[in-house]
Each structure stands twice: as C-alpha cells, then as structure tokens.
C-alpha cells in the first residue's frame, strides 16, 4: 500500500481542498509544463493534468504529470477512454503507479469531433463509470480487467470522476453521480459553475441521496478571461450554464481580467457555503497566473505544506547512474582541457612572477620616497618652528616699537601686508614680506614633499595647495594674523591624516569597488575633520577685520608706507582670498558677502564677478566633494600597491568591472521616484564610465578578459531620408564595447494603436487619451512631445476576432499616420495570419518610398507577405514562438524565398518581467551567441521586442495604487523599463514600448552604456 | 435493413477506366428498398455512365440486370458464366453482394457501385437513420429498446454524459441524445431505477473486434 496522495490527505483530514488545472503544451517543450507548475505550486493541493482536452493532441497527461511532479506539484492524472482501449489504459496505469502518480481522474473524454483530428477513430472501449470499476478492481482485487492477477505492485490510485450538474436530464444527474461513487469514485470535480443557484439545487439532491457523505465534491471554478470567452462558453460549449449576470458583469467591467478573477472569487465564496462541497477545482484555462490570486482573494491560501509529493524518477540510483555517465563523458573533455590549462598556468605563473618583481620594486621605491618625505617634513617643521620663533621675536620688537610710537594697528599691518588670491597665488607673492615669503616657501616645499610621498596627481595637489595657501595668506595677512602663525602648519598636519585610512583600506578592502567606496567615505570624514578645526579660528579673525572697518568703502585705513591705491589692491586680494576660502568650505553666503564687498570697492573686478556667477550657478562645491575626490584619488595608487603585497598569490585575474552598474541603477531608481508625480520631468543623463576596461584592468593581459566575436549582426535600416534608423550591426555582445563595436544604438519605437485601446490602465492611457481618437495625431504627439525616433502602428482593429475592420480602413489609417510623421514606421498586424496577409498586402501598395517595416511574418503567411516585401524592398519582422530553431527556420524560409536577411528583424516572442522573461532572455542570448561566435549567418539578424504590449497586459500594471504595492504608475513604468533594460542586455535592438517615461528611462540607459 | 448510397459518379468512372464491356448488376434486396441499387437505380446509373463515356470520348458497351439478391449463391449462380463476357461487373448490391460475387465467381472482375452505410430504418421517404450496430450482444432490453451502441456518439454503456443538453447530443444539435431518450422511456415505464445498475465493460469480440464473424447452425446445415 503506497502512501496517501496529498489530495487524499487534505480531503480525508477534513480540510477544504483546492485543485488546479494544467493543460500540457501542443509540443514537446518540457519548460512549458514546468513554468505552469511553478505558477501553481504552493497555491493548490494538486493539479489536474488534462488528457488531450477537447480532443486536441497535446503532450500526454502521464508525461506532463511526471514533469509537474518533478517540480514538486502533485498531479491528478486525467485518463480518458476516447484514445485508449483497456490494454492501453491499464498499461498507462501501471506506468503511472511505477513513477509515483497517486491521483487518477476517470473520464470518458470529449468526442474527437471537437478536436483537431475529427477524422480519428474514437476508441470508447468503455465509459468513465466502467473505467472506474476497472481501476478499482486493479487496486482492490489486484486483478487486470480480464481477471488475471497482478503479481507485484498494482496501481493504487485515489480515484476521481467528473460530474456536470448542468447537463440533462437534471433529475438524473445526482443519480449518475451515485453510479460513479458506486463504481469507485472517491472525489468528484464538477463542471464549471456560474449558475450557483442551480448547483445548489443539484447539491440538495446529492445530499438527499446521501452522496455527500460518500464522496468529496470539488466545485469547478473558471475565471472568465474576457467577455469574448464568457460569450463563447455560453453559446458554444454544451453543458455549460453561463448566466446573463456573468456576461453583464464582464461587459461592464473596466478591467475584464480583474473582473473575471473577482467573479471566480465570488462563486468560490458562494459554493463554500453549500453543504457537501469539500473543495474547489480552479480551471484557469491557459491563464494559470490567475490561480494564485484567486486562491489568495478567496481566503484559501496559503495551502498546507504538501505531503508525499516526491518524483520517483529522480531516485538516488538514477542520480548515481547519471553522475557516473556524465563523469565518463566529462573525463575525456577534462583531460583534453587539462593540457590547455597547464599551458595557461605556466603563462600565468611567469606573468605573476614578473608582476611580483615589479610590485616589489615599486614598493621599495615608494618606501624610500616616503622616508625621504618624512625627513623633509621633519626638517621643514623645525624650519617653520624657527620661523615662528623669529616671528614672535619680531612681534615683540614691534610691540616695543608700537608702544614707543603709540600707533599700533598701522605698524602691525605694515609688517604683514601679504594678500593672495585663493585660486592662484603667483604674481601676488611680491606683496608678502620676506619672512612670510620664507614661511610660505617652507610650506610649499613641505607640501611638495607630501605630494611626492602620497603620489598625488598634479590637480589634486594643486587643489590642496591652493586651499592651504589661501588659508595661509588669509590668516597670516589678517590684522591680528601673527597670533595665527600656527595655522599654516595645522592644515598640513591634518592633511597628512588620510594616510591612515589608506592603510586601513589596504588591509581590509579587496575589490576595487569596495575600496573606492570605503576610501571615499573615510576620506570624507577625515576631510570634514580637517576642515572643522579651522572654523573657530576664522570667526575671531573675521570679526576684528570687520571691527576695523572704518572708511566709507568698508576698507581699513591705509597703513603707512603704502599708497592708497596699493593698499586698496591688497585689501581686494585679501577679500577675494577670504571669499574663496568660504567657497572651498561650501559657505556660499559668506563667499557672496566677501565678493560683494570686493565689488563695492572695485565694480570691475573680474574675479569677484566670476565668483558670484559660480555661486549663482550653484557650482559651489559641497564641503567634502572636491577634496574627498582628491583624497580618494590619492589613496588609490597606495592601495593598489598594498594589494599585491598583502596577497601575492592570486594570478592576475581580469577584473570584470561591476562598478558602473551600481550608480546606473541608483540614479534610475531616483529618476523613477521623481517620475510618478512629475512624469514630464527630464531624466538626467547617467554618469558614463570614463576609464576604459583595459585601463581598469591594469596589467592584466587583454586576452584574459576579452573574447572578441568573429562575426557581426546585419544592420537593418527602417524608414527613409534623414530620419531613417538603423539597428543591429553589432560585432559584439550587447554593450561589450571593449570587445567590439556597436555602430548603431538600440532604438525605441512608440506603440500607437489604430483604435482607442480599451484595456490600457489609466496611468498609461492618460498620456495619450487626448489623441486616442486619431492615430495620426497620436503619432504626432509621440514625435513632437516625446521625441519619438520611430513609431509602431499596431493594426489591432483589423482582428477578425475583434472589430474586424477591413483592409481599406487600415489603408486610410496608415496613410494618415504616414502623412503626419516623417519618422520610421513599423506596421504591426493583428496577429491573425490570414487577415494580416490581406491587410498588409493592401497597405503596402500605399507606402511609397517610406521603407515601412511590416510585421509579423509567421510560418503561416511568410510566403505571401515575404513576396510582397521582396517586391517593395521593405524590411519585415519574422515572428516565431519562443524557440531558437523555429526562429532560424523562418529566416531560412525567408531567404529561400529570395528575401535578403538584410531586410529582416526577428521577433522571438518575448515575455515581460515576471512573465517568463528569463526564457525570452536565454533564447535571445542563445540566438545572438550563435550569430556572433559560431558565425551562424541565418541568425545574424537584429531583434525587435514588442515590450509595451506584454508589459501593459500584466496584472501588476493594472492593480491600483496601494500601500503594499506602491504607486500604480511608477510600478508600470518600472516594469516596462526593467523589461526593456533586461532585453537590451540580452540583445534587443529595436524595442516597441508605450509609457513615455519608461521610454525616456530606457533611452537614458542606452546613452549611458554606449 | 442495410442502408447504402451510390458512389459518386466520378469515382465510378475512374474505376471503369479501360473497361469496354460492362454489366451493371442491381439487387432487389435492401438496396432496392432504400432506393440505392434496385432496377430503377441500375438504369439511371447505366445511362449516367453512357453519358459519361460519351463526354470522355470512351466507347463502352453496357448491359444491365438486377438479381433478386446478391447474397444467396443460387441467385448469383448464372453470373459465374455470364460475368466472364464482361471486362467488369459493377455491383449495385451492398458490400455483401460484392464480396459474395468476388468469392464465388472466379474470373469475374467485380466493382462496387455503392457505399454500404449502416443498418437503419426508413424514417420517412428519403430519410434513414442508424438503429443497430450489429454488435452481436444486444442490450436493448436494458435500455428501453433504444441502442446506445449504435446511437450514442461515444457508445456509452452508462449515459448520458455531461454533453447532453435539451435531449440533443453535444456533437451536433441535429443528433438526438439516445441516453436522454432512454431515460425518458424508462421513466415512462416506471423503470428508471433499472438505470442505476452499472452496465459492465462490454465484450467487443461479438462486434467484430474478435475477427471476422461467422455463424453456423448445425440443424440447418446440409
């Protein structure tokens, strides 16, 4: 006896069960099943795997069930009598038992007339009730249907069946259910319920027969995906009772999908109240994504942890077998690779040794320099001390003289008339006294030594030097300046401090990224520390300066020995120096005040004017920014020297630069934060990486990080005249500009619909609602207001399942748009191969020389549309389901037709983020790799990605703003922009998008990366 | 009765390529009653073939005849000799007749003029419907005399399925649901409870899945 199935466990333990449904694909793609299973996983207790539902050939239910099981989702395998006789059914049952299937739903099956092979012979060896008896006999009596004993494990399934409460004769329905129970059904899944009232009557009759005690009844629930689907079910599906109320609700709904989900939730809540209903069976047909939401909204989640859901095929033995086989295969290739690696190792070892020597030499040289610098600093310090002593002596002398002459300030000032511009001291030095000159020279030498020791660049050094000189001149030159004689020394000693953080970083930091960040933050702190001690000094200094102000021009009286003109010039220079010091500290208002004083004295002073302009333009540096930048730069070489010293072992590895990523994302997010409230605001361009990868990789040899491609993608031109755009042409993977060229930047086309869209969320449509009525004005708005470089005109109204507008109307729309805008145009049909052939053929004869791109060409209509495009020399879009081989095949077919691939763009079918984008990404990437590295010329074609259409149909873009999900518009923009950025990285060349802000962000990103 | 219908004329003309002497041979059994292969139909077909030959520029000598039945040896006995005079004999009997001639008349090339359709009844003039599948295991006593094997699209033994709506079958609204009818009939006879009995899995050997069927009655064998 095998362990109970999870579904049986849930039902027998009295819990309300939730089952889902998974329709296997009409191809051999395992991923489809896995993807659907992952969507449903955790939201349902078990999943029905349909058995060629509506008699359409699909992957078999046993196989798909096993795939679901491998994803940890318990399957309910459906078994119909339509396609198998008793021999086949029992054989399948044995296989299912062997591989761990535990639930079996016994059905007669839809008649083959409904499917894609109506000519098929319907087997119908037995009906669903007889199938139940057979399966029960196999389980309970361990006998085949013929009576022969099953020796060994027999199929042991939790058996289920279906019931339709809405079929006729109504009064017989509960009795037929009783027959199924008698035949062995333990659970029942009902037909889709919309008419709850009728279902309640059915259940009443079921209870009258006492069946609710004998069988677990799961009510069938299906969310209508659209009004069209609801109508179809009402009119064309026999035995389905869709009420008028449901139709009306769908018709009135603004968001039909959301309403469909709500209808399902409402019905679940109603049927839960009906006695005897033990669970629900949610059949979201080709809409598995809806199930988690329905379960959540109906208050049925989270589901209990499933029990006993284990794929048997992945047994330990199987794994061991696979491992040993793979091992043998791998062995050969490893041995082959070993030789290669050995060679490489030797080369790297040699390289490493060289690097080591070089580093050691550099370290030794630097240590020597540092020692010299230290000695020099010490020397200069003693010199400075000597000078200070001399100054003090002079001061005393002056004091004496002052008391003798009784004219204090004038004398003192005569001693220190030094003044200098904060920015450039040269030329002003003549104004200093010889002692001050000496002190300044000493300081300069000290600084030069410091620069050498710290390996500062010219610019960084200049910045520090200017700052210090300005301080020096300012304080030394102030009326009471002699007391501040210490000051020039103080900044020097603090400025040396960054050597400390550098050492820290050298010890802790490893990656350049970390290093940069750590150094920067530490340096900022230190610089602030370096600046702040100066502050208290400035204030007392400037106060007396103000106190001395007497003359009408705000200038102290002219000291003896100087002409009025000379003194005025000196004073001006001093004021400018003060202002520049303020600027350096980020004190804009202080600087402004000083500059204004200068202008009051000399209205023509260019420096003061320039300074004020800088303040007005907001170019005042923040207190830390420039200095921290300088210190960071100063820190880097030291840190780089320290690294090889600390870790001499690792071979010089190519440093993949992650650096630009972080700032890009950050600023993008910032832009988005701004986006929601003010979408029109222009995004700032993102900072570009200025340093080439080769430089960033330093000594690492190029062949270690470069894998140049050997082929290139064909460039395709759309449109005519100066506004024509060209995409593709890349000879490298997207944005790998260090390896090859991307001569043409990816482009974005604005999606314009030929009819007012009814399913766009308001946050998107509000940008276009004024022009919805006229596609020509809409396109114009995109070009004029948003700067669109291309337009994609989607002819959705021609869809025969929708408005079914004739080709002649499409011609009118297209010509009006062509007349309204002169940018390149992509014409996107409705997706119905036959109708698109008709429409696009008709339209192409009215395009003139515009080189409009027509889309989509599929395997169903590539001949006719391809011939048209060939005749008119138009670019086309080859659209295929998401598959590398299908994409290639269509390109080959087009080429065989005579259509040059220089005129072809590929649409490999894409999914939005969260909707299978990873699959899209890998297919696009695989195609691009085949084109570039394996010279697969048939795939060397640019990609077009219809992103807007996919993103804006996702429910995430339609759910209103809320605390938990955030602003709806921002969410939509980000979803579109992120999908776009990911597909750009995969290889997208021409993107079709909708939201202007998302497009703007995408363009900003492209600019920054090119 | 066996219901049959004449093959399309084009198909017949294709069969007759290279035939210059033809016998169109009718049957006064079932096919005469369902107006597919009796005297009248033989003459109509013969005229049509003549016209067809004329149109295609073929020369063909055509004789006509109709036997009482083509499924009894005594009636087709004369054909053993006569048939050899013709390049082909176009039988307008059901498939039984064609087979029987092929079996019994060596040297005679027999061709089918009809498609044999089903065992049915004549609802009204020009309308026939299948009523029996010849499955060899009749259950009509359990189903109010209405056959689920011949008349249910899925040959259900325990119907009606969930596609029965308003007495109509899901595959085509022009087809009535036999299980709906069975239920009504049994109710009328106050025997609806009989339908609660689960009909067991059928043995399809008698329906031909056990190989070609034959029957012998010792008492009648000569």
Q: What is the number of strand segments of chain A? A: 18
Note the overall shape of chain B. Answer: elongated
How much of the sequence lies in strands of chain A comes to 5-15%
Give a count of the beta strands of chain B, DSSP E runs of length 2 or more: 9
Please summarize the sheet with the most strands of chain A: 8 strands, parallel, barrel
Q: Give the proportion of residues in helices of chain B.
A: 25-40%
- The CATH topology of the largest domain in chain A turns out to be TIM Barrel
| Strand/helix succession of chain B | EHEHHEHHEHEEEHEEH
Average pLDDT for all residues of chain B: 95
Which class of secondary structure composition applies to the elements of chain A?
alpha/beta
- In spatial order, strands of the major sheet of chain A run 1-2-3-4-5-6-7-8
Task: Count up the helices of chain B.
Answer: 8
CATH-defined topology of the largest domain in chain B: Rossmann fold
Known CATH architecture of the largest domain in chain B = 3-Layer(aba) Sandwich
CATH class category name of the largest domain in chain A: Alpha Beta
Radius of gyration of chain A: 40 Å
Mean pLDDT of chain A: 82
Quick take:
With 1010 residues, chain A is an alpha/beta fold. Chain A is built from 36 helices and 18 strands. The model of chain B has no long low-confidence stretch (mean pLDDT 95).
